[in-house]
């Protein structure tokens, strides 16, 4: 947006004209959102019910004004959705109780999008869930089993 304001002053021997130009600069979407971590690993108890907060992702956008929204892009495709993400805070909650015997781990892909209405830029991150008692790892499903211990019990 630009505006041109012209002031004209008449003097006895000459004419003086001044102009004021107002320029409004609109921001350009230069940057992609960036997650605070390259991946997230969380543990959750099998007995956790709907509404339980089970993690939080966070991304920032260097563009001004800074605005990021979140959504679950992949991994929430069971018959019943298991997870919900707050689109503004990045907090992930359970929608229904998880069952270790049916599925021992869960992996989501979360999308962060900046708020450019014409050409939004996005970033993706993987979120892995293991059940409490399992630890995050890299065995394909994101979780390692607990270490098995063997003991002998004397028999009389």
Automatic annotation (TrEMBL):
<dbReference type="GO" id="GO:0007156">
    <property type="term" value="P:homophilic cell adhesion via plasma membrane adhesion molecules"/>
</dbReference>
<dbReference type="Pfam" id="PF00028">
    <property type="entry name" value="Cadherin"/>
</dbReference>
<dbReference type="GO" id="GO:0007043">
    <property type="term" value="P:cell-cell junction assembly"/>
</dbReference>
<keyword id="KW-0812">Transmembrane</keyword>
<dbReference type="GO" id="GO:0016477">
    <property type="term" value="P:cell migration"/>
</dbReference>
<keyword id="KW-0106">Calcium</keyword>
<dbReference type="GO" id="GO:0045296">
    <property type="term" value="F:cadherin binding"/>
</dbReference>
<keyword id="KW-0677">Repeat</keyword>
<dbReference type="InterPro" id="IPR039808">
    <property type="entry name" value="Cadherin"/>
</dbReference>
<keyword id="KW-0472">Membrane</keyword>
<dbReference type="GO" id="GO:0005509">
    <property type="term" value="F:calcium ion binding"/>
</dbReference>
<dbReference type="InterPro" id="IPR002126">
    <property type="entry name" value="Cadherin-like_dom"/>
</dbReference>
<dbReference type="GO" id="GO:0005912">
    <property type="term" value="C:adherens junction"/>
</dbReference>
<feature type="transmembrane region" description="Helical">
    <location>
        <begin position="12"/>
        <end position="32"/>
    </location>
</feature>
<dbReference type="InterPro" id="IPR015919">
    <property type="entry name" value="Cadherin-like_sf"/>
</dbReference>
<dbReference type="GO" id="GO:0044331">
    <property type="term" value="P:cell-cell adhesion mediated by cadherin"/>
</dbReference>
<dbReference type="GO" id="GO:0008013">
    <property type="term" value="F:beta-catenin binding"/>
</dbReference>
<dbReference type="GO" id="GO:0034332">
    <property type="term" value="P:adherens junction organization"/>
</dbReference>
<feature type="domain" description="Cadherin">
    <location>
        <begin position="36"/>
        <end position="114"/>
    </location>
</feature>
<dbReference type="GO" id="GO:0016342">
    <property type="term" value="C:catenin complex"/>
</dbReference>
<keyword id="KW-1133">Transmembrane helix</keyword>
<dbReference type="GO" id="GO:0000902">
    <property type="term" value="P:cell morphogenesis"/>
</dbReference>
<protein>
    <recommendedName>
        <fullName>Cadherin domain-containing protein</fullName>
    </recommendedName>
</protein>
<dbReference type="GO" id="GO:0016339">
    <property type="term" value="P:calcium-dependent cell-cell adhesion via plasma membrane cell adhesion molecules"/>
</dbReference>
